[in-house]
Amino acid sequence: MFIFDADAHLSLTEEPAQTAEELLQNMERAKIDKSIVWLQPPYMREIDEANRYVYDSAKRYADRLVPFGWADPHFGVDKALDMVKRCDEEYGMKGIKLNGAQNTFYIDDIEHVEPIIAEIEKRGLVLALHIGADYYDYTHPYRAAKIARRHPKLRMLMAHMGGAGLPNLGNACIEVAQEYHNMMLIGSAISYQMVRKAIRILGAERVCFGSDTPFAYPDVEVAAYLQLLRDEPEKSRSQIMGENIQRFLHG
User: Fold this and answer.
1) Residue 36 in contact with residue 7, Cβ under 8 Å?
2) Is the pLDDT of residue 184 over 70?
């Protein structure tokens, strides 16, 4: 089975740190073929070097790693727009991730975030959003719905689909995804019961596997997913474990 991890972090400095080589070892152990990689955010500090490391790593291991950039409006909208441009034109990345929880901003902020999202869409990139319960007011699924309403053609990845802490916002995330079909849910750092519910309500084609490594062990997450999906049709298992995210990234 082709397995594509839609949520993997790289870092040389943050804890728990994970280099590209360590990630590849974990991928081999878990029999993961490809991984989306984005930085593990240096909280409220410059991200230029971290984005560059993601790019350099993906260039070295182009057959295994798919790079996403990271933008943070705290350094100014103009700088964030320049980063989006660099990630697209110089780094050739597939998309940009915004994390309102770790970088403390409202993901639907009109003044500081909307210009970044508009630039991501204009360039045909994928927008990845941390949709988690940690600092849930910043990253609530209903805020993602406002973005989807403004940008109905923008491909949106919903990392954690409302998990990553309490209160669990998985039901709200599923509700939003029912209305906005440009969203793909990444079932990382959320209960397996909620992943199963998303599959039942949205269909197997709307959910994809993610490990959230190094915050979780990829081999454990793969084993858990395969057990979770044991009674699903083979086509559904293949979609969730890799085919969905592969298709989504290619538009």
Assistant:
1) yes
2) yes
Q: What is the DSSP letter of 212?
A: -
Q: Which two tokens stand for residue 151?
A: 């940008």
In the CATH hierarchy, which top-level class contains the domain 4-213+226-237?
alpha beta
How many angstroms from the chain centroid is the CA of residue 64?
Answer: 16
At 125, the amino acid letter reads L
Q: How confident is the model at residue 42 (pLDDT cuts 50, 70, 90)?
A: low
Nearest to 122 by CA among 88, 149, 146: 88
Query: φ and ψ at 7, to 5 degrees?
Result: -155, 90
Read off the pLDDT band of 1 (50, 70, 90): very high
In the predicted structure, residue 80 carries a pLDDT above the cut 80: yes
* Assigned token pair, 154: 């923008």
230 contacts: CB under 8 Å, gap ≥ 6: none
Domain residue extents for the chain: 4-213+226-237
Amino acid letter, residue 225: Y
d(CA 165, CA 131): 11
Q: What's this model's pTM, rounded to 2 decimal places?
A: 0.96
